[in-house]
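Hello support,

Our group uses your service weekly, and this is the first time we've seen a run hang past the timeout. The protein is peptidylprolyl isomerase. I'm not sure whether the cause is the sequence or the server load. Input pasted verbatim:
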Amino acid sequence: MNTVLSRAALAVCLAAGLAAPALAQNLAIVNGKPVPMARLKALEQQVARSGRPLDDALRQQLREEAILREIFMQEADKRGLRNSPEVKAQLELATQTILIRELFADYQRTHPVTEADLKAEYDRLTATAGQEYHARHILVGSEDEAKAVLAELAKGARFEDLAKQRSKDPGSGANGGDLGWATADAFVPEFSQAMAKLGKGEVSAAPVKSAFGWHVIRVDDVRPAQLPALDEIKPQLQQQIQQRRLAEYQEALRSRAKVQ
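Update from on-call engineer: The timeout came from a worker crash unrelated to the input. Re-ran successfully.
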């Protein structure tokens, strides 16, 4: 009898010992079916990717979500929904979305943007940045008014004084028509095209019409466009390079594919 009891006790102990590792691998047992701990880890990874901090309260919420998902999945399987053609099609689309996302993420991991890449991109932008103009203008309501301004300038009137007296642009007018440094594309096309034809110190020979009125323009100085320092725009450059490379990768895959 003692032998039988000892064997039974040993069996219980062995069963408990074997069950412990299994429980450690599972988040819970729902209706006799284990919920793998990997599901909780996957939910935690989703949250981490979104940038939210993981604390104990959130982990507990995710644990409950994983359990609820299993409960709902079991009910869906009882109803045979997994075999529905509509569900199968949606599952296929979801699988494609996940795999494509991971494909692109893997490409970016294996093709990191280096410091040399960032420097080369910065140098390219610097070389193609064009010019900046330090311009002034006097904005009036009619062509005749603009021609009168030009006539006064020809007689020796100071541009800055006329801007303060005549300009309808309150922002620049109070500052002698000063528009500061800007690239040509910062202005409306009619203005920028006329401004770009002027050299340093030159005034537009004729009034320039835009949607705002009539402009008399003077260019005080011209210089190569000034970009922010490389360290200031590294994140933006990195994103631009990654997006461009990813687009090129997608185009390369498409061009190599045999589509009939």
